[in-house]
Design a protein that fits this description.
binds adenosine monophosphate, six-stranded mixed beta sheet, alpha/beta, binds magnesium ion
Length: 416
């Protein structure tokens, strides 16, 4: 099945908006059908360019998803181009018109003549009403190719692709092999090592395709299983996942939607213990990553940003003498920060980060990119030194992930 996407809109070519719709569709399509898009193009709001893109896709595709250009304004050309390209006229869709009038009435708005354009569709096309907006999803068959014309507004686009476009594509695959997918997420293993560890598994799992995606500082292993039935595909996937997890050990922190912060929180949640933070160079990034996870409040007590030495003394009880002798970026300071906030809060676990994010700073012993992360918990205290080359943003992001990962590994290894 060959599927392509076409996005229309001048704003996508002038740096005003980036095309997030294609990503939404690609992820949904892969998750629900195991299929990938063969080509994805962006064209401006230019009649000839849109028609040319539609004609080219019609000639080689089974299905094409077209985003944008279904609005009421004069730069919204997609429905007219679809009609022209197919050699049919635009006709008014009574359902689309009734839906549009009802939406406007519900909001107490008058329908202006340009709004009526949103009820015009190529003759012969199918209309699926859009509960999130006034422009419908238009489905047009041209020879062997099905076009799905979807409004560009991301909320509308997401709803219509998830509930109508992708399920229709999946239904069309009926009888074709079933594909199921799982993403295993890994830290601390470069992509090349990940690949080397997986290579021996390939011959044992003939139904599997192993793929890799890098999401610094994480690497993701994509397991895609294909079999004649869903039950067989799921069984093949489960067997491969078991082997892959065994080979990856504690490098694997989760699957699919799970995040590193979520995995770290889960370790403490299971132990019914809480966490407190002391962050220096990450400036609250560890806290931000943790609080992205729903239910973080069951675990996270809070934290402090102890940026200056005086803050380290005031909020994490790090003696100034320790900072001046060992340095603010040191094993001793990281441990003292963690121990200090743990003591002050009375919480079971504490996590600290201190490092040089650059671009300036650093000392003779500790260059920019040097980061210490420390964890103190019941009966355990650990500190790790890392060196992250790169710009400030990268050092901070990697430091926050290193801290979360140390917490996760330490808590997992600690008898509950
Ligand atoms: P349109 O359907 O072309 O009128 O677009 C409606 C709104 O959706 C505009 O604000 C666009 O910037 C936005 N939009 C259009 N295409 C995309 C896309 N591919 N990704 C993200 N937003 C988009
Ligand atoms: Mg547009």
């Amino acid at each position: 099945v060959r599927i392509e996407t076409i996005c229309t809109g001048d704003e996508l070519l002038t740096g005003l908006t980036s095309d997030t719709n294609s990503r939404t569709f690609q992820a949904l399509l892969l998750d629900l059908t195991g299929l990938t898009v063969r080509r994805s193009v962006v064209v401006g709001d230019v009649r000839e360019d849109i028609i040319e893109a539609l004609d080219a896709a019609a000639a080689r595709c089974d299905a094409v998803l077209v985003s944008g250009g279904l609005g009421p304004t004069s730069d919204d050309l997609t429905a007219a181009c679809a009609a022209d390209a197919a050699g049919v006229e635009l006709v008014e869709s009574p359902e689309a018109l009734a839906h549009l009038r009802a939406r406007f009435a519900a909001r107490g708005l008058a329908v202006t003549p340009n709004n009526l354009r949103q009820a015009l569709v190529p003759r012969g096309a199918e209309v699926v009403l859009n509960p999130e907006g006034s422009a419908p999803l238009i489905i047009q068959q041209r020879g062997g190719c099905t076009f799905f014309f979807v409004p560009g507004v991301p909320r509308e686009y997401h709803h219509l692709t998830q509930h109508h476009v992708v399920p229709r594509l999946a239904a069309r695959l009926h009888g074709a092999p079933v594909r199921v997918l799982k993403l295993l997420k890994v830290v601390g293993l470069p992509e090349s090592h990940l690949d080397a560890r997986m290579t021996p598994l390939a011959s044992k799992h003939p139904r599997l395709t192993f793929g890799y995606r890098t999401h610094p500082p994480e690497n993701h292993l994509k397991l895609l299983a294909e079999a004649p039935t869903r039950a067989e595909a799921l069984a093949a996937l489960a067997a491969a996942e078991l082997d892959a997890r065994a080979v990856l050990g504690s490098h694997c922190f989760g699957a699919d939607e799970e995040s590193l912060a979520g995995a770290a929180l889960q370790c403490l949640r299971q132990r019914q213990e809480r966490l407190v933070l002391a962050e220096s160079c990450t400036g609250g990034l560890v806290g931000a990553l943790l609080t992205e996870v729903p239910g973080a409040s069951e675990v996270l007590f809070g934290g402090v940003i102890t940026y200056l030495d005086a803050a380290k003394l005031l909020w994490a009880e790090v003696p100034l003498e320790l900072v001046s002798s060992a340095g603010a970026v040191s094993r001793a300071c990281a441990l003292a920060m963690a121990a200090g906030v743990r003591e002050a809060s009375g919480v079971a676990w504490s996590l600290s980060v201190t490092g040089f994010a650059g671009p300036d700073g650093g000392t003779a012993d500790e260059p920019v990119g040097a980061v210490y992360v420390a964890v103190v918990g019941p009966g355990v205290q650990v500190v790790e030194r890392h060196f992250f080359p790169g710009d400030r943003e990268r050092v901070r992001r990697f430091a926050a992930h290193a801290a979360l990962d140390l917490l996760r590994r330490t808590a997992q290894a600690q008898p509950g």
